[in-house]
Design goal:
158 residues; single chain; mainly alpha
């Protein structure tokens, strides 16, 4: 019986004292707290989206930079290709390379392509070493090398 009386007294104190305090202090703050939580959530999502967009932009810029480097190196290496092409012609005319029955044009085409591939790849590797201060990732030289090989194929197919 005493416990019931104590519970009733505590209940009346809670209802009479704490409910007005709840109504005066907590309820007006709830919309503000909810708005702040929504703003924090929006800010976190916005920053995450910006971070992903920035990372994608960096990746795209690295790819564009790689393609531009290959294009620039191809234009720089073209006079070297022409020079080696003429040297190869001279060597073919002097030494008459090739086995009996093998067309001279086949040797010429494969030799020029081999020289171009070696030169182009070497130029790319040297340029990557020169620009090694960027140090993006260990995979970047392989990316540049693969781009150079693709550009070689495009140069010789076009």
């Amino acid at each position: 019986m005493v416990v019931v009386v104590v519970v009733m007294i505590v209940y009346r104190i809670v209802i009479r004292v704490l409910c007005p305090l709840w109504n005066m202090l907590v309820l007006p703050v709830l919309p503000i707290a909810f708005t702040v939580l929504l703003l924090i959530l929006f800010l976190v999502i916005w920053l995450a989206v910006l971070t992903v967009m920035l990372m994608l932009m960096v990746v795209v810029m690295m790819m564009v930079g790689a393609v531009m480097m290959v294009v620039v190196m191809a234009s720089v290496a073209d006079p070297l290709f022409v020079f080696l092409h003429h040297i190869f012609h001279l060597l073919l005319s002097v030494f008459r390379w090739g086995s009996v029955g093998q067309p001279l044009a086949t040797i010429h085409a494969s030799g020029c392509l081999d020289v171009a591939m070696v030169l182009h790849s070497a130029v790319v590797v040297v340029m990557v070493d020169v620009l090694g201060s960027f140090r993006f990732t260990p995979q970047v030289p392989f990316f540049f090398l693969s781009m150079s090989l693709i550009s070689i194929l495009l140069l010789h197919l076009g």
